[in-house]
Structures are given as structure tokens and as C-alpha cells.
Design a protein that fits this description.
The structure is a homodimer. By secondary structure, chain A is of the alpha/beta class. Chain A has twelve helices and 18 strands.
Chain lengths: ~400, ~400
């Protein structure tokens, strides 16, 4: 019998009424002929309540105990979902991570999945269980202790089950109805994409489209799991949501699939750095050690032995970055005249797998922005995206102009 | 190293502050040189919240899912207690039932403990763990599913661990400071007992002293576990609480140890039953099948082929009892003229292991009640107790008169 993984996040299982609603979606897929594996998150607020108790109890939290405590939220939802399904006449059974068992590394609080043996679930499906409800976000380490998977853990659990149980698809139910060409709050012509490739989704996810965690998309790409993002507040049809899949499954790729933005960027300029071989390494080593996530980097042409070094980082890393370069300066590792932090910037990116075969996307992007009078401060490019840093006041204008210029509002 | 089991019930771990207070008691015992196994209940209100969700979700609750959901309350407390101890510098680790593993029957919701292998905990103690914090009330069945032990499950968990881990003693921390000769709210001279035998405690527990669940006392008696009941709101000393132990450990037994009462009794009389061989069996079989807990039974002398049959049962079983005998009457199994239910009664008992060797306790009891003008409606006796059913209005008077007559207020 074909298998389907369905994952319901926190807002989709916020309370008993929502759990029931989610259960009715599961029932429909069982009636469609699927054996279903449901992955659930904790009910709204429950994980936060548990984390608050942990924080109040202990200053130096032992990650093993953190995991044992925090994982209980998902266990409760799993049991309630199984009961809801049974109440609807669907044979269902809940599974906690250790019961599957979902084997992980022992990196408590941020464990990685190592293996999901399918025997136990297979046996239960053969015995007539139609739905396995699995508590997301958790597993068991080699030491027999409960582990949790960290941020995005439930999405990752869902994709891993889809791979291990050879599911036809992994449906991620969330509070948005799919992936859009850009943020509909900024551009009214933003259009929901029916399909998008893993590579594009990765760029969109890491650039700030908060639909799917990067980690789960990476896993889906590695194991070729067809991933669908759809809304838990609508009745699903075959065309619901956005399918994230292999690019070969997408008949005709757009040159550009989407325009994204990130508000939380800062531009940092080290003014008049004494230039010498290895100076860039010295600067960025110091920043890396301080835990600063450096994104874009530009070095001006060196004049008379001095140069300006510009980079971008998240706004909440600025203080850390300043402290790191000051320390490096006083220890004599680097020499510069001053540091300018510009917080009034943002990053705009265009993403599309078609760029690989179509030259000129970057040129067109610069031309559009130039025509609108938007000055570009830094540029970075990858195989399937072009990003620029611009003044924040031009953010909406830039997104709208690029969305329009690349004709993203039109249905293909 | 000597071992100690410490059990903290719901009110003793009501919130983070209480958990911390309990942890400091555990720390003191570690400093006294014990390896400690702590058994915890769920935080106040948590189990009720979970049960309410279960009830709201499903009409015919699947006991496997009930157990998976409800057991999560104890898991949270266990983790928080371990963190509290670590924060105080005490190496502690939490254990869920399946991790120990605490093996039970598969009677979900009311499982019985079958085995507690000590290897895992022994190994951890050897590696420097000073405290094992175990989630009470739960275990794992042969099918690999979580089970719960039903009413009094956490006390039972504690006693079972004390037996399996060969603990010197099992300390049950609760909201009372011990077992009293009678209810101090009724008799101001009620005195805390320093020691009491298992047998006496069993009679007291099943007669309504709500200190310990019958089941845990039975288990303690079977495995000769020394059980101490004490208050979690006081600082424990060697003489705190009441020690429940083998009678041989009690130097001089009192003839009578305590006077108990139960308010929730009803007296039922089947009037003019057509007497024939097997009639009592027919009546009480019908009541048993209807789930009526019959306690005391009296049959009057038969006259002209008819007799009155009187029994007592909990007040909330009265309606069920009435329905059961009416059904038996209409099906022709029994024949009687009427049923009188008297709800205004109560049961008074005197309990004492010394009765075995001292005749006349029953006679003295009847004499005292008679002197006070209290009419006795039913009498039952066992080896170590005498119980009578009397009008409820005489309850306080009876308890006080008996407590005084048997000199229970005096220290031995």
C-alpha cells in the first residue's frame, strides 16, 4: 500500500479542536488508500512552558535532562492525535521517538538522525494499524537517553520518516498555503508556486522565507523525498500548496523563481586597514571565533598600503563583531582607523535554477535597480541566486520592481 | 553504600519552588551517605489536565494511549528534579519507566509491577551518579508500550524500587507528618505513632486513613520494606513521621493502635427475602456483577421461610445496588418485599495487632458505645480489627469515646 507522511506543526495542533481538524485530514488520506505516518509537534505554548521551567530551575542546563523534559510536549500531542483518529474509526497508534526507535547521535539538544529502522512500524501496518502517529523533534541516543533534534526538528523528523518508510510524499501542514514568488505583504502580485526545486527552496529558506527549515530541505534533497508545503486551515486538493521536488520533475523552469529579502542585515566597514598578506584571514578568523555569521564580503582596491574591508552580518551580531575587531586591534593582529556600522540596510535576492543556463540575470537585476535609483552597496552571487545589499528604505520598491521585471506574477 | 528511596507526591512537587525544597531534602540524605532513588509524581494539576484532554478527545478511551499521554506529567517532574539536584552540585539523572526498565503487566491503566532489573541503575551508581530520579506511576509492558499503575501507583513504584534496589528504607513524603491514633480534626488528643506494623497500616489504609495506598503497604509487607511516612513541609529528623515495619521491630505492641471512621457508608436492607438455600449467593452475585463493593453483611434469623438481609456499601454504590437487586427480582432469581437504604450511617473501627493476644477488645468497644448511648447496627471483626456501623450523628462521639477508653492519647 502506498505511504504518505503528514506533518502538523504547532499552530496546526494548537488545541484539541485543531488536533481534531488535523485528524480529519489524516482520515481523508487513509480513505484515499494511504498508510499514513503522522508527525506532530507540541501543542501551542507547551514547549515554551517547559523551557521556561528548565531555565528557572537551572543556570547550567544539562542537555540530557532538557531533552527528557522538553520532549514530553510532543508525546502528549501524539497520544491525543491517536485517540482523535480512533474516535473517527481509524486504527491509529502513537509512537514516541524511542519506541520507533528513531536513532540519533548523542548531541543532546541538537542531535542528528542516524537511522530509522522500519521493522516495528512495518509489522504494525501489517497487523492493521492504518496510521502511526509519531512524536516529532525527538529520538534516542546510543546511551539510551532521549534526544531532541533542535530547531526545525519536527520537519526533519517528517522527511527522515518519508525516506526510511519509502513514502510517496511528505506533506508539511503549516499556517501558510505554500511558497510564493515573494512576500505577498509587499507585492500584491506575488504568486504561489506549484512546484519548486530543492536547490531553489534551500536558497529561499536560508534567505528568510520561513516556510521550511533549511535542514529538512537538505535532507529531502539528499533522499529525493517529494515535499509538499500546504495550509492546515484549508481543504487539501491535488493542487494544494507547493511541491518541493527534484528539478527534473519540473517541466519548464523559470529563469527566476522568486525574490526574497532580509531586513536583519548590517553593513560593517573597517576603514583604512593596514594591508598585508593574510590580513583578510586575520579579520575573519577573529569574527568567526566570536561567533559572528559573516555573509557578504567586499574588499576595496588597496591604495598606499591601506584598504577598506566591508562585510555584512545579522544586526544582532554587530556588538559582537565590534568587540572582536577591537580585541584583534589591541592585540596587534590587525590595524585599522575606524569601524562604521550601517544598520539601515537590507538584502534583496533573486533566486532561480534557470540562471544556470540563462546569462544576464545579474545584469538585468542591476539595471532594474539602477533605473529605480537604488544604489547597490555589496553584491554576492551563487550558481542560482544573486544578492545585493541596499538601503533599507528601498526594500519594498526593490522587491516590487524585480518581481515585476522578471514577470513573476504571471502564470507560466 | 547504603541506599534510600525517597518518594515525593503531588503536593510535595506542586511547583518549581516545592521541587527545589524536595531536592534539598534529597541532598541532605546524600550527605548522610546514601545512594538515593527518588520517585516523583506529576506537578499539581498536571495529571488532571492531561486526563481532561483525553476525556474530551475520546469517548471510548484506548488505555494504551491514555497511558502514553498521562505518564508525561511524571517525566517532566523527574527531569526538573534532576536539574534541581545538579544545580545543588549533586550528580543526578532522571529515569523514565521504560529506561529503568520497570517491567509491568500489559493491563494498561492498572498495570502491576513484574520486575525491576537493577543492573542499569547499579552501573550508573558505580559511575558516580548519586541520585536516580525515577518518574513514578509508570512502567513498560511486554509489548513495548508505556503502562501506568493506576491509583497509588507512585507509592507502589517507590516500595518496589526499595525492594529491588535493597534500600534500607522507603521514605514517603506527603502533606501529613505521619499516621495518627485517630483523626486529629475529631479528637484533639490524637497522637502520632512512631511505629506501626504492616498489618495495622493495611487496616488503617483500607478503612479510610488516606496516608498510604493499600497496595503499596501490601507490597512493603511482602518484601519487608521499611516504609516511613513523613511531611515534606518539615525538616526530617530520625524520629520524623511514622515507620511502617514488621511487628517484630516494634518492641511493645499496643492492644489497640488506632480508631478510624468512614463517612461514606450506606446500610441496605432487603426486607422479607424468601429464604432458600443459595439465596445469599444469588443476592451477592448480582451485586458483585453490578460492581457494588459490599463490605459488611448480616442475615437475620429466618422466620416462616422469610428473612431480612442487611449489607453495607459505599454511598455512591447505592443506586447501582438498587438496580441490581430489582433486576434480580424481576428475573425471578430472588424474591423480597422491599429495599431500605439508610444513608445516615458511618463505620467506626478499632485496629490493633495486640488484639490477637488480648481478648475482650470487642466487648470493651461495645460496652463503651453502649455507655454513650450509641446503637450498633452491624458488626464485623477480623484478627486485628473490630468494625461497627452506627448512626452518623454519633461518629465524632464514638471516635472520641473509643480513643479515650483505649488510652490512645498516652505515650507508651
Amino acid at each position: 500500500m502506498p505511504r504518505l507522511v503528514m506533518k502538523f506543526g504547532g499552530t496546526s495542533v494548537a488545541d484539541l479542536e485543531h488536533i481534531k481538524n488535523a485528524a480529519s485530514k489524516v482520515k481523508r488520506e487513509v480513505e484515499n488508500g494511504f498508510e499514513v505516518i503522522v508527525i506532530v509537534s507540541a501543542m501551542s505554548g507547551k514547549t515554551n512552558e517547559l523551557i521556561a521551567w528548565v531555565d528557572e530551575t537551572s543556570a547550567m542546563v544539562d542537555a540530557r535532562e532538557y531533552d527528557a523534559i522538553v520532549s514530553s510536549g510532543e508525546n502528549v500531542t501524539a497520544g491525543l492525535m491517536a485517540l482523535s483518529l480512533q474516535e473517527m474509526g481509524v486504527p491509529a497508534r502513537s509512537w514516541q521517538g524511542w519506541q520507533v526507535p528513531l536513532k540519533t547521535t548523542s548531541a543532546h539538544g541538537a542531535a542528528r538522525i542516524e537511522e530509522i529502522p522500519s521493522e516495528n512500524l512495518d509489522a504494525k501496518f501489517r497487523q492493521g494499524m492504518q496510521v502511526a502517529v509519531v512524536a516529532g523533534f525527538q529520538g534516542i541516543g546510543a546511551d539510551g537517553r532521549i534526544t531532541t533534534l533542535g530547531r526545525g526538528g519536527s520537519d526533519t523528523t517528517a522527511v527522515a520518516f518519508a525516506a526510511a518508510m519509502k513514502a510517496e510524499r511528505c506533506d508539511i501542514y503549516t499556517d501558510v498555503d505554500g511558497v510564493y514568488t515573494t512576500d505577498p505583504r509587499i507585492e500584491k502580485n506575488a504568486r504561489k508556486l506549484d512546484k519548486i526545486s530543492y536547490e531553489e527552496m534551500l536558497e529561499l529558506a536560508s534567505l528568510g522565507a520561513k516556510v521550511l527549515q533549511t535542514r529538512s530541505v537538505e535532507l529531502a534533497m539528499r533522499f529525493k523525498v517529494r515535499l509538499r508545503v500546504l495550509s492546515s486551515f484549508e481543504t487539501a486538493t491535488d493542487n494544494s500548496g507547493t511541491l518541493v521536488c527534484d528539478e527534473e520533475e519540473i517541466m519548464e523552469n523559470n529563469v527566476v523563481s522568486g525574490v526574497t529579502y532580509s531586513r536583519d542585515e548590517a553593513k560593517m566597514t573597517l576603514v583604512s586597514v593596514a594591508d598585508r598578506p593574510g590580513i583578510a584571514a586575520a579579520i575573519f578568523m577573529a569574527l568567526a571565533e566570536a561567533g559572528v555569521n559573516v555573509d557578504m564580503i567586499v574588499q576595496n582596491i588597496s591604495e598606499e598600503g591601506r584598504t577598506d574591508m566591508t562585510f555584512s552580518c545579522p544586526t544582532d551580531h554587530v556588538a559582537r563583531a565590534q568587540a572582536a575587531v577591537d580585541t584583534a586591534k589591541s592585540s596587534g593582529d590587525i590595524n585599522f582607523h575606524g569601524l562604521i556600522a550601517d544598520m539601515d540596510v537590507c538584502k534583496i535576492s533573486v533566486v532561480g535554477i534557470g540562471m544556470r543556463s540563462h546569462a544576464g540575470v545579474a545584469a538585468k537585476m542591476f539595471e532594474v535597480l539602477s533605473r529605480e535609483g537604488v544604489n547597490i552597496k555589496i553584491i554576492t552571487t551563487s550558481e542560482i541566486k544573486v544578492s545585493v545589499l541596499v538601503d533599507r528604505k528601498y526594500m519594498e520598491l526593490s522587491v516590487q520592481a524585480l518581481h515585476d521585471a522578471f514577470e513573476l506574477g504571471k502564470t507560466t
